[in-house]
User: What shape does this take?
Amino acid sequence: MPTRVVERVTDCEWSSRAVRLIEADARRSADTHLLKVDLPDWAARGDGIDLYLKDESTHPTGSLKHRLARSLFLYALCNGWIREQTTVIEASSGSTAVSEAYFAKLIGVPFIAVMVTGTSPAKTRLIEAQGGICHFVDSPSEIYTVAQRLEAELGGHFIDQFTMAERATDWRGNNNIAESVFAQLAEERHPVPEWIVVGAGTGGTSATFGRYIRYRRHDTRLCVVDVENSVFLPAYESGDGTLTSDTASRIEGIGRPRVEPSFVSQVIDAMVPVPDAASVAAMRFLSDRLGRRVGGSTGTNFWGVCTLIGEMVEKGRSGSIVSLLCDSGDRYDHTYFNDEWVDERKLDLGPPTAALEEFFATGVWV
Assistant: This one.
């Protein structure tokens, strides 16, 4: 009896071209800088403490999420989920959608971002400038179901950063962010950092760093900072992955109202809770130190960094700490850098600002 061959009509030529376009774009893009931040004289005692920030704001779309978006598109293309004319849909608070709109435009497919009303207008404009469409919802819990509904209605692909982030990136190497950081530190006096400090949005960045550290057998520990209204820290403490929150994070890009599938808690060594007022105060303080504006999530990272450096000083330890400069503060003129916006939300920046000033003056972290 003859064997029947069942074939599916595919658009391999188009997919091959799309992958080539994304890879060519990556080759045109240089790696991001690892900035060394000047610390006060007390950090030079003994073998010293060094602080570095991986400046992800220099990507073509201006944020850390550019790496993730590239990985998500390549993953979906190579799985056959995005084809010619496929509408790509994402549930995003902003920066991921900005980067995904860029890649959608690059390969010529439509893009829709499902976002919570009140997302930074600057981010909305950036998405639309790339040809993307912004679809707003009132509640943060709606973004997932609305994205799934649009996927079904349009026959599109919900790219789903919150599920796919930890699997779309090759954490063993291939120039991921962890491999890049360790390569850039190779000639420094403390080439293997004591701590790496990141926030959790999807969980993909912390998963990549945590897995890479273990794979390369480094002694580095991973700290994840978490913000108000986020359930990552309570889930980490309790082990309950079903926790949810009805309130969205005020610090865009990090903190989630549910434990996202890409959040791999087992690779995290410590977590630090950061009040929103501390995130904003630290963002402004660091912006003044660097002479350039950084975003709110970078402020959250910096507060966690200061916490750990304070602990190192207290214990007489030396070494390096690495964190991320996630995006530029220019996107937040109307929010974190706007005093009226801060006052309306009753964020008292006085105490955390005083704590940072005292820390930089004395090396004592309270």
